[in-house]
Fold this sequence. Notes:
- By secondary structure, the chain is α+β, with helices and mostly antiparallel strands.
- Helices cover 26% and strands 20% of the residues.
- The protein is built from 15 helices and 21 strands.
- It has a four-stranded mixed β-sheet, covered by helices on one side. A four-stranded antiparallel β-sheet has the order 4-5-7-6, with helices on one face.
Amino acid sequence: MRRSRHAAHAVTALAVAVAATACSSGSGSDDGASGGKKSVVVATKNEIPAINPAKDNSSTSIQLAWAMWAPLTDLDQKTGKLKYVVADSVTSKDARTWTIKLKPGWTFTNGEKLTAKAFVDTWNYTAYAPHGYKNNGFFSRINGYDDLNPASGKPKKTTMSGLKVINDLTFRVTLDKAFSPYPTTLMYYGSVALAPEVLKDPDAYDHKPIGYGPYKLKSQWKAGQPVDMVRNKKYPLKGPEADQLTYRLFSNPETAYNEFLAGSVDYTIVPDTKSDTYKKDAPGKGAVSKAAVNMTYLAPPVNSGPYKDPKVRRALSLALDRKALTKLRAGSFPATSFTAPSLPGHRENTCDACTLDVAKAKALLKQAGGFPGTLKMYYNSDDPGQRVFAEALGNMWRQNLGIKVAYVGKPALDLSGLFSKGKVDGMYLAGWGHDYPSVEDWLTPIAGSHGDVNGARYSNPALDKLIDEGNALADPAAAIKKYQAAEDLEAEQMPMIPLYHKPDAYLHSPGVDPLDSPYAGLNPVWSTVSR
């Protein structure tokens, strides 16, 4: 049995469509305070235990990685086509054995060369179960992963047989099955390399990471403090415009919002509670992300109590009025399927239990024997808007199905930790945005038996088989048909309950414009700074 990569995400959408930035009190560009240099400050979410994209895959960690590391591959922001960044090429004849060649000239900020061995060593370290790295599961497709992640007992090996260094700049990856989208997955920052110096004692570098991205730490980071960065002069590509970059971490999104209004933050994502007022609060400073639309959904504990029965899960979904719910999330719209509308292969209305039908919901619940006991509705207590939304859900179940509901609020970090461990015993309000633009990345992570964010521990061999069959097809159109068949099966079983899509709205100071691409996402690191 494999372990999973668990992304922290109590209603925190990930990857492509992302967070916020900020610049110091509108004075961070060309004045004397910053020594005549352009500076951008980025406001993001929760505190993190370490700056290490392998160790922690929360949205905050990944955002910091954007600045301090560089991906092997990426998407062209104008065309959406795959492009190489650190990698010079990623090739395969059978979609199973891949050769990755690195571009020469890359070095870590401590002067060590970025080599094929650094990638292989980092990937093995991350995949080794006893280390407990959250990106462990990202490498689960590589041959030998199971040896490092046995179902019980300690691993007998520390390296995966599917990784082999060919020379300083080339390594080979053998997957356990053919997987044609593999080069695209390498745009994920969880696949970056850690410096050899760091790998000797990673914990010692939690607050002083060594990367190879466009920025590096100005000085050692202290927990609870902003993360200050300056340009990495060894970065071999054209870098971002800002000379200085600061991330400020806010557990409460309304605090970041107020900091923006006070002029001490340049960028922030608009919290749900401000969706109706941000244009009035900050006229001319708001925008909506062009990137793929995130989804908020419910994750029932499918292996416990009444939630085991798909009839119950479908009844709970049919009892929800999504149009009413989206009124609490300005700019959002009801989800009618299990994938993002912007992706090739997306189909509307694949979820036949995503439309309010109280009579059908009652009939299904009766067939299932009812809902004994009390339904627990978990929510993120850091965000005031989450309690309101949780109560709206609970009221619909109570009024439409007569179910008793209890609300359990916990800090987002604690809640995502429980979910990652499969210990949430009620409805979990979750969010997802793909790491790479494929409908497959909406199936495997959430509903695949070993999915990265399958905190409900749903497992369906038939669904896994369809995804595997799609992965093995080189023809994207043929692969999509297999993925769609898997989605149809998901619609029958409802291991997750789609609620709504909502593109991120954000605020930015005049003269500081983040990268906002429908393909590359919203990225404050690559801001245009014209002030």
